[in-house]
Amino acid sequence: MWQRIKQGLETRIGLEDLINTKLKSYSVPRNTNIFYTLGGVALVAFIIQAISGFFLLIYYVPHSDHAFRSVQYIMTTAPFGWLFRLMHVVGSNLMVAVIFLHLLSVFFMGSYKKPRELTWIAGWLMLLVTLTFCLSGYLLPWSQLSYWTTTVVTAMPTAFPYVGDYIANLLRGGEFVSGITLNRFFALHVAFLPPILVGLMVIHVFLIRRIGLSSPPFDASSEETKPWTEYRHVSYPNGNSFYPYFVLKELYMVALYLVVMFFVITFMPTLFLPEASNIPANPLMTPAYIKPQWYFLAPYQMLKLIPNKFLGISMQIALIGTFLLWPFFDTKTERNILKRPLLLATFTASLVLWVVLTMWGRSS
Amino acid sequence: MKRRKFLKSLLALLGSTTLVSFAYPLVRFIAPPSRKAEVKRLSLQKNEIPAGEAREIVLNNTPAIIINRPGKGYIALSRVCTHLGCLVGYNKAKGNLICPCHAGIFNLDGKVLSGPPPKPLTEYPLRVEGETIIIG
User: Can you give the pTM of this predicted structure?
Assistant: First the structure.
């Protein structure tokens, strides 16, 4: 039976040729490490988000009168509703964590350098789209946490003169966060953002395949000696096949991802659901303790520390812009960060600063 | 060659007309629905707010607060923090207004004492006629 299906496909689309040319003879550097698998893990994380999200749509009602109750229904009444909701909630946090790690390892290994600038930019745009996913999804349960986090975020454009108020009102569909905002964010979350993210993924993966994977820069053999003046494909004739060697490595990391996810769901289900997420939204009362998710704690603390709204928000935009265009600022050909003490020091200092701001934001 | 150039310009014209005639409705479509500013008045009895106490109200769809400042009389302030829009709360013990989101602190006149808010809280006109406080 299986043989006949395989034979049928072979006759029609040349399956074997496809697998041989795209997966088996596509070889990756022999010294790839586990950090190379994080992009693949992020892809699987996104697929899990999409699937659990589709299921949540069956019971979720995107209306300010019913949203909170429908989420409660999913959590308490719909059979295994809690499982799909928690997979979606925990999964979103873990997906951001995986993307952060992916970004850090790409930075550390200098993989963003010429000719891979566009891959880096596509990746950064994907991170921004993912964070927009997180923000828009945050409003949907229509809890106190949802409401006030969204109030703060949608008020950020007001730091800019003239156009700021208009942009804020455009996002919210009015002067305040309301049912109109809920519908806008719902549309963003389930209809506008998914194709954008998938489109960027296609570009990202296309670029990786077209240019060829970069190799870890830590041994002398991996140095690219020729300066990059015209297009060429980077290949590793002595490397390992993508399939099965690299795919297996990725599968191990995906399994690890799932273990972490189900460990959190089983043993700490409220880790990402603080108290304010169990109280229905009240536009007349800001709760005493309102904090963003862990990945926004550093920018949150920065906003608190910089005693000027315009400066605080412009600085964050400038930081994002710098990271986004980083490959064009860092044009040195040396890819090994260990041979570049200044870059290594800046990298470590930024990382430490980020951790300190996050901890500070959490405890203050 | 002239004919080709003409056709190219025609295509550009048609293309840009189509684009504009789609873009304009789109911008109008996603723009926030217009809302007429309501100017409503609100009145309260003086004895509802003893000295040192405050009362939260909603004025023209905006959450606001009336405070009876000891020694300085009544004031009506918007509760919307001028930083990023959270609602300030009255702290009777410290005699100030605190925004829980990014730790902005205002005094009872609505002026910024500390934290990131760029502007004082909006003050609403308020007058006292006999035993009645009229806001707005």
Answer: 0.90
What single letter denotes the amino acid at residue A247?
V
Q: Which amino acid is at A83?
A: L
What tens digit of pLDDT does each residue of A209-235 get? 999 888 888 876 555 667 788 898 888
At residue B128, the 3 state secondary structure works out as: strand
| Residues of A (225-284) whose Cβ lies below 8 Å from B | 283-284
Size of interface A-B (CB pairs under 8 A): 76
Which chain A residues touch B63 with a CB distance below 8 Å?
Answer: 283-284
Q: Do B84 and A306 touch (CB under 8 A)?
A: no
Closest CB to A308: pick one of B30, B35, B116: B116
Tokens coding A136: 């828009």
Let me know: does A133 contact A189? Beta carbons within 8 Å: yes
- Asked if residue A38 lies in contact with residue A105, where contact means CB atoms within 8 angstroms, the answer is yes
Percent composition of chain A: helix, strand, coil (DSSP 3-state, to 5) = 70, 0, 25
- Three-state DSSP at B124 gives strand
- Residues linked to residue B66 through DSSP beta bridges, in sequence order: B55, B76
Question: What token pair was written down for A222?
Answer: 């991996």
Contact A133, A116 (CB under 8 A): no
B58, B84, B103 member nearest A284 (Cβ)? B58
ipTM: 0.81
